[in-house]
Amino acid sequence: MQHITISLPDELLAAFSSHGQDFSRAALEALALEAYRTRKISAAQLRTLLGLKNRPEVDAFLKDHGVELEYSLEDLERDRETHRQLGI
Length: 88
Fold this sequence. Notes:
By secondary structure, the chain is mainly alpha-helical. 62% of the residues lie in helices and 0% in strands.
């Protein structure tokens, strides 16, 4: 694992801290969200990167940050077939 160091002026760090945010976590989440939005990482990679427990936590995180879920027509058809097979 690699670590990244970011140098910020004190007033910018103070601005983030004044809202009660852990700047390191906020920076990680911002980086992860942008990578997901631009399709550089998958939802599974986002979950791992942020230490989320399961897909519903990923979905909630994305919803909280105004990110649309990637759900294609193929995903819908695959889910429909799974439901048919399960008798749901």
